[in-house]
Design a protein that fits this description.
The protein is mainly β. It contains no helices and 11 strands. A hairpin with a 5-residue loop joins strand 5 and strand 6. The radius of gyration is 13 Å and the shape is globular.
Length: 114
Amino acid sequence: QVQLVESGGGLVQAGGSLRLSCAASGTFFRFTGMGWHRQAPGKQRELVAQISSGGTTNYADSVKGRFTISRDNAKNTLYLEMNSLKPEDTAVYYCAAFLVRTSWGQGTQVTVSS
């Protein structure tokens, strides 16, 4: 059974930083592409960043140069380092495992005040 548990969200001022973590259960992690998505109120869920099992990364244009996705296969943990945060980054952030059927965590709220 796949379980993904996000942590690290919170309230931060514009220009600040946060680091999100996603702890994954199961043996799938090191073999699976992972990603971070976010959903703001009234908007569709969107991909923020993704990382392949081999470490290749891809970012949404809106976060390039500010966010960094990484993974620690020894700890079964996915990270998202977020710097220079903007109010428009406010959303619920979800961890995703790109298995045959995508599995999602419960989400963690990130609020950036202006």
